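Summary: Need help interpreting a holo structure output

Steps to reproduce:
1. Submit the protein chain below together with the SMILES for flavin-adenine dinucleotide.
2. Request a joint structure prediction with the ligand placed.
3. Inspect the structure token block that comes back.

Expected: a single structure record containing both the chain and the bound molecule.
Actual: see attached output.

Input attached:
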Amino acid sequence: MGVMRSILLAASQNSWLREHAPRYRFVRRAVSRFMPGEQLEDALAAAEALARQGMGTLLTRLGENVASEEEANQTARHYTTVLDAVRQRGLDAEISVKLTQLGLDLSRELCYRHLASLIEYAGPTSVVWIDMEASPYVDVTLELYRRARAAFPNVGVCLQAYLYRTADDLASLLPLAPAIRLVKGAYREPAHIAFPRKRDVDENYYVLASRLLAPEARRAGVRAGIATHDRNLIRRIEALAASDGLRKQEVEFQMLFGIQRSEQLRLAQEGYRTRVLISYGSCWFPWYMRRLAERPANLTFVLKNIFSS
Ligand SMILES: Cc1cc2nc3c(=O)[nH]c(=O)nc-3n(C[C@H](O)[C@H](O)[C@H](O)COP(=O)(O)OP(=O)(O)OC[C@H]3O[C@@H](n4cnc5c(N)ncnc54)[C@H](O)[C@@H]3O)c2cc1C
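--- attached output ---
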């Protein structure tokens, strides 16, 4: 793992920085590249703009590891407001939640209750996506996913290609006709559980994506979200889909707001299903550090903002 990546991922877990860094204007300005604003209204306006360009969206309010039941309840209430607003505006937008935001650290049952009520509230055609957090949460996340999937059709989960275990997890989930969002993985994980070399992660991503798009998976009703900005992988997956006879509308790419905008537009214009994940909210520090860690060249952007402020 790159030294800079390790430093940034360590910073993402630092509580002093979490509290103090967001006070600086240059940090807030730099983060605006990745999020349209802190308010739900900012995210909805961005979703409307993307809809005009033919893209669907995923909405997520930043925040993780809530420490009180009231915060978990408040988060769940907030997402019902989001679903109401999406319906009122007729947007093709789904929500994406972190289980630790719904109280997983406090009580599994509390978390599941919130998750199930959101899935039900979203209605059968709008998938509620569950983010995948750091590795200690993978077992419990998949356990709650299975439980939710047994009760509802409209729930999806994220799997991370950097983990060795993901190939087995995917194989065991496929019979459930799941909705799976495949990502490379954004956390700091040790080499005994995750591929340390980027090229191995990329290769594993391709292998897992091939399984998700394979004819058997499609016949079983799997919905695959190919969530990456990696142009090389995107090209390979486009070629694979074409050679398997998939129509472009049957392939869904997902990307983060503000990253590879031209690629997002190209995919949408060419007829692929394209969804952009929009994050908003005030608890953005750990999330922002993970975005910097993905591409330490982003730091140049932060530095430019220091000198121009
Ligand atoms: C829709 C969506 C949902 C996600 N949900 C989760 C989740 O639940 N759990 C989880 O662990 N991870 C999640 N991630 C993050 C993911 O794990 C990766 O960390 C992130 O997508 C970067 O990997 P990449 O596949 O784009 O490939 P990379 O090889 O990291 O990047 C490929 C190229 O994309 C561009 N790029 C990538 N990241 C950035 C950036 N931050 N800033 C500027 N350019 C960039 C660069 O040009 C880079 O060369 C999600 C990602 C997406 C798109």
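--- end attachment ---

Reviewer comment: The chain is about 50% helix and 15% strand. The longest helix spans residues 69-89.
Status: needs-info
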